[in-house]
Amino acid sequence: MTKPDASSLPRSLEARIFAAYAGLTPSERRLADVLLRHQMTISDLTAGELAGMAGVSKATAARLFRALGYTSVPAAKHQIRTDQLWGSPRAGLTDPDRAPSSEVSLQHVIESDLVNIRDTAATLSEEALVQITEAIVAARRLWIMGLRSGYGLAHHAAHYFTLVKDDVQVLPAGGASYSHEIASIAPGDVFMIIAFRRRPRLLPVILAEAAASGAITVLITDLSIDERSAAAHHVLRCRCQSPSPFNSFVAAVPIINFLAWSVAAASGEASLARFRRVDSLVSLLDDVATPKLDPRR
Hints:
There is one protein chain. The protein is an alpha/beta fold and 297 residues long. It is built from 12 helices and 5 strands. It has helices spanning 13-20, 26-37, 47-54, 58-67, 73-82, 106-123, 126-138, 151-164, 178-182, 203-212, 252-267, 269-285; strands at 142-147, 168-171, 190-195, 216-222, 234-238. It has a 5-stranded parallel sheet with strand order 2-1-3-4-5, with helices on both faces. Strand 1 (142-147), helix 8 (151-164) and strand 2 (168-171) form a beta-alpha-beta unit.
């Protein structure tokens, strides 16, 4: 791979990897995924350790760093360590100190989001998805928490899960404190938390407390999560790159949709009965207009 012109590259490691990802070999992609998961602690790891974690050679590590536009592994580690924009969406821009171009392409955004969805799906463990589905089906209660940018997605998830499962709770609810609600988590529960960068510092504590309560914990997050802080039984990582100054969280939506659908299918008649009950109550309790189908069509 030809070494790119450093002046035309984005500043952050994450953005450089996403820009080059399509042209990487399978072994380089495995190492790139390791770099994304450990980008906050890369300065503590040697090139050999990083290569070993990905199951590739040191030569592959050196080749990947050159492909990303770094002069050497030490130079890359130094720049990553001193990059003060980590976590900010601006870090994905070629020049984070200049306003983005006024030329906005809907097609470019759509293509980028499709890549996010496909690349995320390709890295998900089918075994983990089955285990999460089984845990939710068997759960006494499903708790869903969305932190910062994950707040809206948590309510999206709750909307679908409440259609097919009893006792789904969104945290925080009604202005109550985290402590009051997390104290109610018990063995047999599932605790799903959606937290993308920038993640609150309390995330590891919240996960640890939920796990200590006996719940199965599921974290939906992005590729930059540090494994040492991802204290969850299951971690689903989403690709969030975007051509805009904003992160894209679109890849989380099909994960949520799949899990809700999978839970409904696995629950069988129980989910169908709840769905019918909810549907019958909509016309009685909810002020909504539902178009009636023409029976002649």
